[in-house]
Amino acid sequence: MPRSATRQTFLKASAASLVAPYFVPARAFGANDRLNVAAVGVGGKGRSDIANAARGQNVVAICDVDERTLAKAAKTYAGAKTYHDWRVMLEQKNIDAITVSTPDHMHAPVAVSAMQLGKHVYVQKPVAHTIYETRQMRKLATEQKVATQMGNQHHSGTGYLTLVELIRSGAIGKVKEAHTWSDRPIWPQGIERPKPTGKAPDYLHWDLWLGVAKKRPYAGNRKRGRGPYHPFNWRGWLDFGVGALGDMGCHIIDPVVWSCELAPALRVWSDGPAPNGETFPKWGIIHYEFAGTQYTAGDTMQVTWYDGGKRPPSELAPLPAGKSLPSNGSLFVGEKGVLLCPHGGRPMLLPHENFSDRKIDPVKGKGHTAQWIDACKGTGTPTSNFDYSGPLTETVLLGTIAIRFPGQKLQWDSSSLTVTNVKEANQFVHHGYRRGWEVKGLSR
Question: What b/e sequence results for 344-357 when a residue is b if at least 16 CB atoms lie within 10 Å of its CB, and e otherwise?
């Protein structure tokens, strides 16, 4: 297909998805009507999530387990009611939509509870803590006819949109393999559980922070207010986060899955160390095998993930002298060349001399949060809604299961959410919730 025709088709399809509604909202919205938005988690990434959602809308409720963080946000959103417990917040009747920006283990419990009440949800990546949760969230979103979006914002950025157009137009020919990597973890991993340090500080509602996770005593530095769990270092802990792969995979593996139209992985295996029972390891190398598509060179395609300082072999990227791979990025090896894209940045075709006459026209899209707001009002389809981001997260989280079984190639049946050849791996497809924190539709 000529490049111009492919580009036109891609742009028309992208534009159409943001115009045609994929559900009819419960109440009609006029051009100047405002959405009533609430937020669970208003510190860190949650601060920008609610700020983006607030543009032109009403923020009617905010929730955070840290009283300091909540008080700071309350100054910005003076008209919003404040809560420490999201379950109480969801009793507020006038909420249309919520942003969920909590530690990973609370994404699904909050989002599912909100969707069951007919609320639209914007959920930070990864969309869930377990594969089973991703499937239930996708199913419920369809049943409830709510607008959803996962917070992998680069999915809507010019860099990744341009990358997808280049791959699908055949700029490097069929893709033979892909490599993805991150400089994470930038938080502690491969460590033992810290000793308790006594009662949590008065400003932190520790039991609410634990939520569905198993009960454990607080550990932290009361003076500095930053410990091994709250407010940031939770990502490496098995009970709360999904490590470097889970954190950045939904960003960096995204353009590979998207551009090549890959279904959930068939097989996955790990070359790195296993978790110690408390945290993910200091580094990892994960291999995925997917069924081939119209954009890949063979019947199957392999994608490799690297973190903790590991990188793809340098010879795969024919960079100019003195240049090196970015700290986070993706690399596509095609039949006619290589495409390299820094995380969220501008893609480049390599070697440069082979593509000197190829002009790369940037593809622009609509803002990630703006897509979701429009969809909440009945216009367009968010490009990382749960129909897309659910299967993407499933593949990413499958890697966090493989990490637990180094050297064993796990055979994955996505239709039944089952590892078919290593039965003990299935205990990590989902886990139970703490007594008193059960959520309808998520308890097995």
Answer: bbebbbbeeeebee
